[in-house]
Amino acid sequence: xxxxxxxxxxxxxxxxxxxxxxxxxxxxxxxxxxxWQKTIIYQVYPRSFKDxxxxxxxxxxxxxxxxDYFKWLGVGAVWLNPIYKSPMVDFGYDxxxxxxxHKQFGTINDLKSLAKKLESLGIKLILDFVPNHTSDQSVxxxxxxxxxxxxxxxxxxxxxxxxxxxxxxxxxNNWISAFDVDPAWxxxxxxxxxxxxxxxxxxxxxxxxxxxVRKEMENVILFWLDADIHGLRVDAVPYLxxxxxxxxxxLIDENGSKNDYSNLKHSKTMNQPETYELLRExxxxxxxxxxxxxxxxxxxxxxxxxxxxxxxxxxxxPEEPIAHFPFNFELITRLDAQSDSxxxxxxxxxxxxxxxxxxxxxxxxxxxxxxxxxxxxxxEMVDVLNTMVIILPGTGINYYGDELGMENxxxxxxxxVDPQGLVxxxxxxxxxxxxxxxxxxxxxxxxxxxxxxxxxxxxxxNPNYWKLNLKNQQECxxxxxxKVYRKLAAAMKHPTVQKGxxxxxxxxxxxxxxxxTLDDNPTFIVVMNIGSxxxxxxxxxVVSKLPDxxxxxxxxxxxxxxxxDQLSTNGKTFWxxxxxxxxxxxxxxxxxLSEGNNVQCSVVTITILTLIINSVI
Length: 617
Ligand code: NOJ
Ligand code: CA
Prior knowledge:
Blueprint: H1 2-18, E1 21-24, E2 40-44, H2 60-65, H3 68-73, E3 77-80, E4 84-85, E5 97-101, H4 108-120, E6 124-129, H5 139-145, E7 157-158, E8 162-163, E9 169-170, E10 185-188, E11 193-196, H6 211-226, E12 231-234, H7 273-292, E13 299-302, H8 308-313, E14 325-326, H9 330-333, H10 341-354, E15 362-364, H11 373-376, H12 382-391, E16 395-399, H13 419-422, H14 425-432, H15 470-475, H16 481-491, H17 495-499, E17 501-508, E18 511-517, E19 524-529, H18 539-542, E20 549-555, E21 566-568, E22 580-585, E23 589-592, E24 598-601, H19 603-616
Parallel strand pairs: 2-3, 2-16, 3-6, 6-12, 12-13, 13-14, 15-16
Antiparallel strand pairs: 1-17, 4-5, 7-11, 8-9, 10-11, 17-18, 18-19, 19-22, 20-21, 20-22, 23-24
Bound molecules: 1-deoxynojirimycin (NOJ) and calcium ion.
Residues 90, 93, 130, 199, 235-236, 303, 368-369 line the site of 1-deoxynojirimycin.
């Protein structure tokens, strides 16, 4: 018996030593948190959310029609992908007029009406700002091609390097477009020069060396601030300015392909010091406007797919801030179905540790450019990942439909419209096309999932809509993804989840445990089994000072446990299925979801538990 005890202790010790723990404290100098720190930002891809006029394309009126859903779900801000005038080569990221609304989406009055509706629901509105490029159909570009001042230098024009043996002009350098294997340069017969396009050839890059361009884009920012929006998500920031010498990019592998974007080092085309400077000026413009108008914070969020060091630099410094936060894409770019708990903890810890002091974290788990989480990690992981994004410290960002566990839709080659898929051709398009993650929101089980009355939406609805849809998940008398999500969203209003200290443990390859603790408040303990086997966690051996009993606040739908269940933390007292998670609390937290999604704590239990915890300490 003694031997057994000894062995047990040795095992426990071993267990504890392999468990990596790491902690993080929210630093807000005792200040009240701001609106953007206390909410989930819900991303709406307008073409795919709700169609109000039966043309098969989502629009602003459609979003307004279903806006009560945001309130019901408990999200506090909505970000819309571009709604501006555009030839739609890149579905709105090729903007031909930055201050006009594209007619398929509606009118400026429709936008005002939507903003008013959201305001009445207490929900903020964030718009996309696309400063790196315009459409080639922009009047600016047309005038630039014709050398009409002051537009001549609005874009990045360069002389050819010479001509090849067929007399064809040679691009100025070896830069490759991020969209395909073609040069980032296109020759214009009229101007007899190449223009730069880091993305599609129909999306020429603006030239920020031109003071006129700078002024134009400042006016665009002010135009939208005047329209009372609550913030901007700034597109593709690393590409704003190029290295002065326009020299060749270095190859990563000298023997590798010279036409492969991923084989170039991008030190000439991305994250230039002047880019940070320009963004700093825009942030100041936004802050000054906000101060002058005595309005609530207008949030400034940057989008950059780059290494962690350069991404984090987009926070700026406390003296010279840039973004309120740069999108944190680490969860979707560094992890997938192969990742174990150590990989997850590493990604989470790196962001929290390397973020500048006092900066605010955020977590993205999907968007219109990446595979949906249910497809990237597997459908059983949906609740686990949504729990992570919401209960980790910081702002959570949700891509429409991920709260339901929507999956990537198979889109046939002849239905493909995404330029990033089209350039790859029939054989390879599936690996690069973003269409599958952009298909219509699945509202109900009626024709086209209730998205449109048209016979054919702009992209096909996922054939699983008859069972995977919002209405089904709302009305079903079993736990569903959206019900779990709603419970999680409500938790985000809890002081512990907003401001609590964070500690993460990885007791095994498949287990992630993290806690959020705040003085005089219940503790949240998140327990995840991301492995392939069932496990019996022994919580008290992982997290110290836990009370003997904890409550299930919410549980992934594949759990054996139910909301409100009491679990013992001593020993291996309960099982967790593979890919399941539990959000536990040290007191029973009651949430009144029917009335505005408020969190109310049971004060009696808190007091008793505080007494118990204090006496243990
Ligand atoms: C990033 C956007 O998210 C993506 O959809 C777009 O294609 C590129 N920027 C170019 O604007
Ligand atoms: Ca429409």
